[in-house]
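User: Show me a protein chain along with its predicted structure.
Assistant: Here is one chain, sequence first, then structure tokens.
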Amino acid sequence: MTVPGRRSSTFIRLLRSGFTDPTTAARLLDAEALAAVRADPVLLDALGATADPDLALLGLVRLAEAQPAEDLPLLLDTLVSAKPLRDRLLGVLGASEALADHLARHPRDWQALVTYEAADLHPGLPEFEQGLADAHEPVALRVAYRRCLLSIAARDVCATIDVAQTAAELADLATATLRAALRIASAAAPQDAAACRLAVIAMGKCGGNELNYVSDVDVIFVGEAAAGTDEGKGIQAATRLASHLMRICSETTVEGTIWPVDANLRPEGRNGPLVRTLASHMAYYQRWAKTWEFQALLKARAVAGDAELGAQYVEAITPLVWQAAERENFVADVQKMRRRVVDNIPASQIDRELKLGPGGLRDVEFAVQLLQLVHGRSDTTLRSGTTLDALHALAAGGYVGRADAAQLHDAYRFLRAMEHRIQLYRLRRTHLVPEDEGDLRRLGRSMGLRTEPVAGLNKAWRRHASVVRRLHEKLFYRPLLDAVAQLAPGETRLSPAAAGQRLEALGYADPASALRHLEALASGVSRKAAIQRTLLPVLLGWFADSADPDAGLLGFRKVSDALGKTPWYLRLLRDEGAAAENLARVLSAGRLAPDLLMRAPEAVALLGDPEGLQPRTAEALEQEVLAAVGRADSGEAAVAAARGVRRRELFRTAAADIIASYGTEENPAEKDCGALVDRVGDAVSELTAATIAGALRAAVRDHWGETLPTRFAVIGVGRFGGHELGYGSDADVLFVHDPREGVDEQEAAKAAQTVIAEMRRLLQLPTADPPLLIDADLRPEGRSGPLVRTLSSYAAYYRRWSLTWESQALLRAEPVAGDADLGRTFIDLIDPLRYPAEGLGEDAVREIRRLKARMESERLPRGADPTLHTKLGRGGLSDVEWTVQLLQMRHAWAEPGLRTTRTRQALAAAHAAGLIPTEEAQILDEAWVLATRVRNAVMLVRGRAGDTFPADARELAAVGRYLGYPEGRVGEMLDDYRRTTRRARAVVDDLFYGA
């Protein structure tokens, strides 16, 4: 009879012990086979400590029920009285359904978990060979293999051995299994065994002593004919033995399979003979082998068969492995191989791929192997086939930072432990993290995460994968490796004599001058010169990728001369791969960015920080500028500080633009050219606004303290107001003021005039920083009108005298500095002018068209090619902007989306409102973006503004590289520009002129 409430208390206790199905668990505990121990509290606690208590209990019941009657008391007695055995057995049953199946089929094998000797706690190859010694046919070998595997898994899940020891023991067990399989194959064909010598070479994880629970065991077979046997017949005999060995391990029997033996890493892969002589192997490797084959051979280890032949093979291929990094394109080949692996992962699995996905195990392994192969040529301490041992050696030798190595070590161990637990469950070859909640729960608990196993597992996994991905990008793609790997052995440290030859081959226009720069940088025995000798080989290659390698090298010398004594500069370039490549791109792309950098070389630090090239917010810029102005003791010092900020931020913007346009080895060039243009326009416009705000604060403070007698605002117009400034643009503005209460209008006007004059003076003082020119010619009455007006004067003028072109100019008016309330009031004043109710009348439309036609005929510079002038030429900036502005003035009163100062936003709004078809909107946008990019490119390349393509061949090529055209494709660039703008002009004729 069941006592009331007893079922309930058992149910609750089972829940608290970690069972997810207490009802089934209670039924299993009532099984007859467990009658002697079901009431023992130790059993329930031990089950609750496993990765999956439900699975462990089910496995225990199956094991108990399978016991011969005479053995059951021994199992149950040992289970409750011997804690080590209890933990090992229940630990395995709670982690591996497959091993529970094995125990149910072979119920006495649980006794393999009872340890007596120290060797049982940490068995090695001899112990595993002994464990397989009685297996004389494939089925028996499988049973014996599983029995040995059971002992490894038990000590693994109980943390008696760590993940590296587990992997090493699995490799030892695989070695013993290959030897047993070869023994069985030889016994089945003694004549073949007598006719040949056969060595089995382990590759991959088995060769590296770091095997998984379930993995293909990669091998290579080396054969020789026995003495007195024809070579052909000997190799045929060896081939039959090797084939039989593979079948013994791979074929499915009543006891399942062990693991596939994969010989596809042999010369010629599946198309090549299964067994070759040592001489045949060497002939292939010396003549035909690809880079990946040498990388694979790094882990080669003789494990079975003829020990002398195996040792000869390893001795023969070792020099070839460590010379692989001298092969042409070695590093690029390895990188392509890694990318190809990732590209072949199905999209639906890439986020769950533990081995091959981004931030996975293969990332660590590839990074470590690449560093080994490059530096192991001269440092034999790096020549280990085991990933963690090699990583430790790399750190000890200084090839990897110790902190980086420690993080990689921890992440790799965690990911390998996850992989082990995933495979152990069903003994299936998989690297996918499960999606099922129950599977994730068991996996998390097996990793020691008991409170919130699923959430904790996902968090830890993502954290370690993120660490691996970041370090992988830093180490595996570290561009400095190319400098070592692509050079001949004697050229690893660049000598002046070799440099001259390299410079000519790389296409430097003035090798003699370039060589002098190299001699200045790399000569001597100082630490600085030694680091430069390591950096220069790869930097020369990057400079050569540009249109002006000589300028890049000259710039690098100047920066190095300025910063070479600072401790962080060369360390940044050596340790942060992106910094060196970014600096090379910036220095060789043209004159503007290097000129900005040379005025403040410490800004090179921005190039090594992933966030360093991100544009700063308008608020942060203005805050920094105003703080700098506040600390200065004079107007000149204040604006010098503000202009210093402007110079640094211009460099940040230009560098980011160049790097995004060129692309790097790690990140391809930005494909969204519109986004590039918008980022530059926003950054330069906001920087200009902050600089003007600083100059205004300095001018006011020097003459009036904190408060000007009149409220004063600066209104950006033209490209400034439209957030479309380029690197060389002037700041088009209007000035407005409003006298404070009780201040005479003449006094207020004089104060406003004084402030403007002082701002202009300060911003144009001759200094090392680029001047900022303020242009107020778009004000009412142009140059003939007063420089500044009151709000009421603007209102009176616009009410009585305003012309249509002035209303059009106000379309891009936006407050940029000064009194914010006054700026908003000015915008409220002009909105009815620029967005007239019911739209423009026909007379006004005709006036705009006449003005545009006259401008086209009169303002285009004499001799300029109208098909290549970016501003006034056919389909250029003016064509697109006037077309968009006409749409704004005609329709913005009814379409709020058109009320923007930005050309691209207004164009998108016109399309959204149905005012322009999709194709025509895309044509205009493409032309405007292209013309803007050409103008930016000209300024970056020449260091001065221009509206046409440069005439100088090298400068024109540099513009082409910025726009994404490879070397020698300048003609294609010009043709593309003409075609794009010709199509845009056809749209303009239709929309603007009504043709």
